[in-house]
Amino acid sequence: MIWYFLLSLHFVVEIVGVLSHWIFLQISLGMISISMIVMLVSYLVETLVCLSIGTIYEDAQCAELPLKTVLLCIHRYAEAFSLAAQMFFTNERVMSIQFEHIHRSIFFKIFFIAGFLFSNFTGLAYVYTSAIKGEYGTFWLIAFQLFVIANFPFVLYAKKISTAKYKADVRTYSLKRKHNLYNSYEIARSFLYAAAIYMISQLICFGLLWAFQFGLLFDGNRAYFPRLFFVISLIWHANLATFPWIVMLIHRSQRERIYKVWMQMFTETKSPSKILGMNGKELVATPTQNDYFDQLQQSWK
């Protein structure tokens, strides 16, 4: 039950996109969330299948089971799709922050379709070469580590430019644009910490793989590779299980919603209603837009 509760929280990552009222952001986060859930569930079932024959490792005996092969294809497709979608999502965020009306352009629609096709192609290529043909396993492992590591600078850049634009003079942008920049800042900020932890864990996995390749682990004996892969898989899937927690607890408005639900479920006292500003602090209503902007500017400082 605890495992599936953790899985269900990945949908909360999608909610962050839904609240921004951008259909492209909703679809992007939806693809990431669903692929993460499919990957985790399929890996759980894979592990149970291997346990049914008395082994916890993905060794040759377990790999011969037909059900294990089907689950492996599903798992690896979702894994590759998720990583490619995260790269695509980060680039979409950077473009959306830089250019206000880019979602209306033909270029962006082509880019969006190309990103979706690329994510699917990556997943299918990984399934065919690794799960079906049994080749290029090490290549894909290293490539996926590089995917995660390379994604972090883009997330950092998205946070930097959204912060710079949001801190501009309050009359530089319209209220709608200011609100969208705030959403972009909050999403980039929450994903930055999650991506940083994700990147550190992938660097550890990357180091383990290279240590194995150079004979520093298990003397490079391929017979022990299933044990190493088991450890790497645990690190990967622990990241995926904690990823939505990190995002939700750092995202201020979502954290406030979680707190309200918690208070309603586990306490008898009701928290008082209050209006929050864009920095998460209590806001006193003011009559004009300029006064509202001025107060937001002071709150941000």
TrEMBL record:
Q: Which UniProt keywords apply?
A: Membrane, Transmembrane, Transmembrane helix
- Segments traversing the membrane: 6-25, 37-57, 110-132, 138-158, 191-212, 224-250
Instruction: Give start-end ranges for the coiled-coil region(s).
Output: none
This protein is called 7TM GPCR serpentine receptor class x (Srx) domain-containing protein
The root-end lineage is: Eukaryota, Metazoa, Ecdysozoa, Nematoda, Chromadorea
